[in-house]
Amino acid sequence: MAGRAVQPGRLRRRLTVAFVAVAGFSMAALATGSYAMVSRARFADSLSRAATDVRYQLVLAHQFLPLDQTRTANLLDSFEGSGRHVVLVTAQSVTASNVAFRAEPGDRTRSLAATGQVAFERTGRQLVVGGQIPGSTDQLYVVYAEERIYEDLAQLRTAMLASWAAAVLLAALVGRALARRTLEPVGRASEAAHAIAEGLLATRLPVRNRDEFGAWAESFNRMAEALEAKIAALASAQARERRFTADVAHELRTPVTALVAAASMLREHLQALPDTARRPAEIVVSDVVRLRHLVDELLEISRLDAGQELVSARPTELVALLRAIVASRGWQAQAKVEGEAVTVHTDPRRLERVLANLVANAVEHGGAGVHVRVGPGPSVQVSDRGPGIPAEHLPRLFERFYKSDPARGGSGSGLGLAIALENARLLQADLRVESEVGVGTRFQLTLPVTYRLPDGEATVGSAGHGEAHDTFEEGPS
Amino acid sequence: MEGRVLIVEDDASIREVIALGLTRAGLRVSTATNGTDALAAWRAHDYDLVVLDVMLPGRDGLEVCQEIRRTSQQPILMVTALSDTIDVVVGLEAGADDYLRKPFEMPELVARVRALLRRGSAPAEQEIVAVGELRLDPLRFTAHKSGRELVLTATEFRLLLELARRPGLVFTREVLLERVWNYPFLGDSRLVDVAVQRLRAKVEDDPASPRLIRTVRGAGYKLAL
């Protein structure tokens, strides 16, 4: 299943990050905008108050004209006494009422003031506003401290930053929860799909809400139902087919029994028959053998289908078993067995069925060059140098009655490889085939590694089949 | 070869060909087509052996086998179309001495029948074998344990005799198949297991924990000294 490793929770994290980014960005924009508005309003307000005040102060300053040294001192004292720090700018000098607030207005301010308007400039954290004293060329500037405004704005900045941080944190929490809630159906669907893939076809998704996920869950469930129905239909069709096979095999068995027994008697008297009857009788005798073989294989495969076959395991040496198979069937000329002795704990009769069918298939299609090799480990390779099997036929090779070349009849029943595969499954062995046209075909059987238990019994992984002999034994004796 | 054989088989062709084959082998043959007729024929005549099909209409082969075993220890050869090994085992437990699977070739059936008849009539040795409480008389085909007579079939007797001839020695299932059943039988050693089980039921004080006929795991059986 794990073709690509998908990191779980990655989409959730991405959704959360996006949520936080949007929230953070809009909060920042809002805060910056508000701050700009507040600060502009505060400075404008401060300036307009100062301007109103200055106009009045200039009229008051007019009372001190003409400004000689004494009057200048009086003027400065008077303003300083009223709590205003002023700067008097004459053609000769710039005099401040308080040295701590000595601001020197710039040229632009002075020339603007010279036209009779109220002029201002901001230096440091001070607002300097002034104009020409009516009836003179001297200018008077009042210096207003704007420290408070700066302090207030600094406070505002701090507050806004803090609330921005709090908002981002909140957004992260809410976003995470939201993403989790949103993606929960996705996770459930993924688990459900996995369960279906594992074979739990009854798996369904809960339909909670009438939203997109609800609709999705509904269509997922419909898909699962369709799949379940389809598979059930296929399974019952297969069961019918298998029952039919079993019934046919059993029905054939009685006439075949009579035929086999009769033919075996006929065989002993072939020479006594008249010439005209001898050859047909020979054909009957030899084809009864084929018929018997076919019925036997049909019965075997229906027994395997029924799944009630017992496995009776015992230590089995592969090379010796293969040599015995080859020798007992007279294949010494066509098939060579090699490899080092390997002993496995398995059912020798079933293993013989598998190996004999593989070698028979190789001898039939591969001619003389059949090579049987044991190893490495508990595995057997049966290779032939026959015509090979085209790739498109390979997946169906183990099907019943499947012939890759219908024109070539062959003497086999067409069940040999299917039986080999079923028996291999029973032994929990792995059977695979590879072939190249013009080069040959190679079957590989790999048996499970068996472990010897302390009391002398062995186990094959999680084999569910009891050892048949145990039925008749009374336990450790 | 002398011998009267009862053939019980419902299929006419199979019945006929078996009868033909056994007649050619020099045996005297009677036939029955169902279980009820078979038991009637068995009671009316004196047969040396029964060839019994398992699947019969009415009373089936297992019932017939059990019924015959209640009064007789004559050899019974079960012929079965049943493919499952378990059914074969059930047949053997019902008291059959041997079984033959359908389809079979006539020479094999004849060989099995001959082996069973030989077992019933000509034991291998004449001397009385005594091991512990056991006393076996091959000449009379009788077995006693602590003076009490054991009722054994021919197969069971020969199995016990084989084990008792060399007490303490381990016999593999294959060796027992060859010596007791008279033919080399590759693979299906269940025949031995079932016979041992049946023998224990008759010989052991407590068949659930046998003290006399012991299993040697992974090897075979032996008679404890």
UniProtKB/TrEMBL annotation, chain A:
It is found in: Cell membrane. Residues 458-477 are annotated as: Disordered. Residues 466-477 have a biased composition (Basic and acidic residues). Pfam families: HAMP, HATPase_c, HisKA. PANTHER family: SENSOR HISTIDINE KINASE TRCS (PTHR45436:SF5), SENSOR HISTIDINE KINASE YKOH (PTHR45436). This is histidine kinase. It is an enzyme of class 2 (transferase).
